[in-house]
Amino acid sequence: MPELPEVEALRGFLAGRLVGSVVGRVQLVSVAALKTYEPGLDAVEGRTVAGVERYGKFLALRAGEQLFLVMHLGRAGWVRWREQLPAAPPRPGKGPLALRVRISPGEAGFDVTEAGSQKHLALYVVRDPQDVPGIARLGPDPLGEDFTPAAFAGMLRGERRQIKGVLRDQSVLAGIGNAYTDEILHAARLSPFQLADALSEEDVARLYAAVGTTLGEAVERARGLAPEDLKAEKRTGMRVHGRTGEPCPVCGDTVREVSFSDSSLQYCPTCQTGGKPLADRRLSRLLK
């Protein structure tokens, strides 16, 4: 799933190519992806792109001063820029294409695609990004000025959930998902199963620093890259996520995994759990 660093890179890439251009034609291929019906999708056509904004994992293309085309890429969505789009209109079918946006004048534009059978891509046309429910419920942006040590400590106070789940909760912090929570917790030397309210002041300070450093470095690595290069950059920048069985780059211990029904997490026992492997609930069930 694209997370804050990748979405921020996509925002910068699109802004550099779209701002000042006119939206020529917007062609919807996946009707199920469109979550709003008024204003219509064609309302953005003929409007000048005034900006491209990011809200957590949401991208918002500002069309004129009153409309926004908002995209949430879900788990397997992506944006693909093309200098020359096909002249023929796209046909609905079983392919990954969900939306095509043409820029005028010229033949350039971008496709919004979604791979796989599970569809989570969401498109909206709204007059205010806050009209999108997922944006309205977002917590602070971890790279924003309002994300301070005191504010972060307040978010965790009284929070009885495991810290990984708290960091992934978009109403607590906007833009962090499964991959970067693994990286942040590794950098902070914290177990993903640690209860948030049980963290010491030192733990919270270390975690706050890890959030800013991990995301900030990932944003810098991704800055200026074309969309087709972002996924590879994300993978190469990971120290534990997606690296089960590999040596931890910090201590050399073997990176372990805990699997769930629809996801998994990776961690280093030496760095994060006092050398003790965490229980893998799925594996435990298989061994019974």
Short structural description:
The chain is of the alpha+beta class. The chain contains nine helices and ten strands.
Record keyword descriptors for this entry.
alpha+beta; four-stranded antiparallel β-sheet; 288 residues
User: In whole angstroms, how far apart are the ends?
Assistant: 32 Å
- Average pLDDT level: 94
Report the uncertain regions.
283-288
Helical residues, percent: 25-40%
Widest β-sheet, arrangement of strands: 1-6-7-5
**Radius of gyration, in angstroms, nearest whole number:** 20 Å
Query: Main beta sheet: strand number and arrangement?
Result: 4 strands, antiparallel
Number of strands: 10
- Beta-strand level of the residues, as a percent range? 15-25%
Instruction: Please count the helical segments.
Output: 9
Q: What class do helices, strands and sheet pairing give?
A: alpha+beta
Categorize the overall geometry: elongated
Order of helices and strands: HEEEEEEEEHHHHHHEEHH
Q: How would you characterize this protein structure?
A:
With 288 residues, the chain is α+β, with helices and mostly antiparallel strands. It has helices at 4-18, 133-136, 149-156, 163-168, 178-188, 201-222, 227-237, 269-272, 281-287; strands at residues 22-28, 49-55, 58-63, 67-72, 77-82, 97-104, 109-114, 122-126, 256-259, 264-267. It contains nine helices and ten strands. β6 (97-104) and β7 form a beta hairpin.
Task: Give the helix/strand layout.
Layout: H1 4-18, E1 22-28, E2 49-55, E3 58-63, E4 67-72, E5 77-82, E6 97-104, E7 109-114, E8 122-126, H2 133-136, H3 149-156, H4 163-168, H5 178-188, H6 201-222, H7 227-237, E9 256-259, E10 264-267, H8 269-272, H9 281-287
Helix pairs in contact: 1-6, 1-7, 3-6, 5-6
